Amino acid sequence: MTETVNVDVKLGVNKFYVDEGHPHIILKDNPNMNEYRKLVNACPAGLYKLEEDGSIRFDSAGCLECGTCKFLCGDTILEKWEYPRGTFGIEYRYG
Amino acid sequence: MSEEAFDAIIVGAGLAGCVAAYVLAKEGADVLVIERGNFAGSKNMTGGRLYAHSLEKIIPGFAKEAPLERKVTKEKITFLTDDTGVTLDYHNGRAQTSVQESYTVLRGDFDQWLMGKAEEVGAQFITGIRVDELITKDGKVVGVRADGDELMAKSVILAEGVNPVLAEKLGMVKPKVNADVMAVGVKELIELPKEVIQDRFNLSDNEGAAWLFAGSPSNGLMGGGFIYTNKTSISLGIVCGLHDIGSSDKTVPQMLEDFKNHSMIKPLIEGGKLLEYSGHVVPEAGFNMVPKLVDDGVLITGDAAGFCLNIGYTVRGMDLAIASGEAAAKAVLAARAAGDFSAEGLSLYQTLLEDSFLMKDLKLYKKLPAFMETPRIFNQYPKMVADIMESLFTVDGSASQPLRKTIMKHCKEVGYMNLLKDGIKGVTSI
């Protein structure tokens, strides 16, 4: 119907304080792909990427801290899910 | 920091947390709110519409001073397919009392204002600090650990939001809430000049529209689209159930993009500028998801307790959060007067909720979440209504059919039994 959405451009207008070197979400190695696909579809920030060659790419910078991935896969393919440390992460200016 | 234990430490400066702080501090209680964001509201977002009633009872006349966007006078509900839309449009020009009013809001400004109100009456806030865990002693919550510091309290009010990590650690909320009953919301805030918004949505000064869409926005899954008009921006988004998200052929961000590009929506936001992109989980299970709300030294409020009502034509969370924050504060005040912060001493919280609209409404609509999982609501019915409309309004020179026959034909496609079944189920669940 329309062109493929570019979520990164949308995230680009947001204000983030990235806690370099301290990812607040860590994905397990070699995650189950059925589980991973849920996150590809559901993550509002599109952080769980599936490349054309079938490889996966995930970076928790750009996270909106909604918790969707934790609800879906918190006990399957996520090694760690916590909120960023105080002052870090998304800062909504409007909300 | 005081050596004495606080009467209450509140985790999270959202609506439940700020209201609880306001009510407690106003009665002279010693209260501290800890917020992980840099300011109240900095981690919060809403669709967003606030029903005024619960806050109006706590801060009468708040609407005159609070940073609200527009007073909602137009309600629209649309059945949307990929290329059609059938809308019910209700304009309310009647006078409303202050408890009947509702407003579009943006949480950044609003939460900061509410925090200011609580500070005025003596509540303390610290921002930019994440509470890492609760301190328990003999099974009783006695404080919080944050950034290496230990802060002691006679009670802790968890107002930590829809993803209640502290309540989970405590075992009060099940770690993995059934994803079947959770939904994810995404929103774009789109800037447009005031006059343009008022022209496009047929609004007078300060009046606003609340518009919900069922059907294609959530790609046939449970959910829908929404538009709320603010002063100089439009909140536009979709909500999608997580139940079947793995098998969806569209991602959630793509659903939002397609909704924006729908031929019915695109002209409304033409020329607008994206100000912010936000996401949030919506707890949609209602009454069936409410956890244990009180334990020794601890209470759970707002989204953290799953207080949300999705009735299809309205979605409510903020007025529930406010009411629960107030009830939690009153329970802490009673416990403080009696010198008993045990689960028993705090049990007024449960009683107040049971006696209020909050639990009564959650109970009334407890069958609705199951009904909303009927996929026909989000795929077949929007199409059926659109097909009926197309048949009614298309004149192409072919011989017309009797109206009854035309309508029945489209109903048959869904199945009379399904219509009857869903009709009965739908009516009995509201």
UniProtKB/TrEMBL annotation, chain A:
The keyword Transmembrane does not apply. It comes from the Bacteria. SUPFAM superfamilies: 4Fe-4S ferredoxins (SSF54862). GO terms for molecular function: iron ion binding; iron-sulfur cluster binding. InterPro entries: 4Fe4S_Fe_S_CS, Fd_FixX. Keywords: Electron transport, Iron, Iron-sulfur, Metal-binding, Transport. Could be a 3Fe-4S cluster-containing protein. This is Ferredoxin-like protein. The lineage of its organism: Bacteria, Pseudomonadati, Pseudomonadota, Gammaproteobacteria, Alteromonadales.
From TrEMBL, chain B:
Signal peptide: none annotated. Residues 7-183 form the FAD-binding domain. This is Protein FixC. Keywords: FAD, Flavoprotein, Oxidoreductase. It comes from the Bacteria. The keyword Signal does not apply. Part of an electron transfer system. One of its GO terms (molecular function) is FAD binding. The keyword Transmembrane does not apply. Belongs to the ETF-QO/FixC family. Its cofactor is FAD. It comes from Shewanella benthica KT99. InterPro entries: FAD-bd, FAD/NAD-bd_sf, FixC-like, FixC-like_C. Residues 368-429 form the FixC-like C-terminal domain.
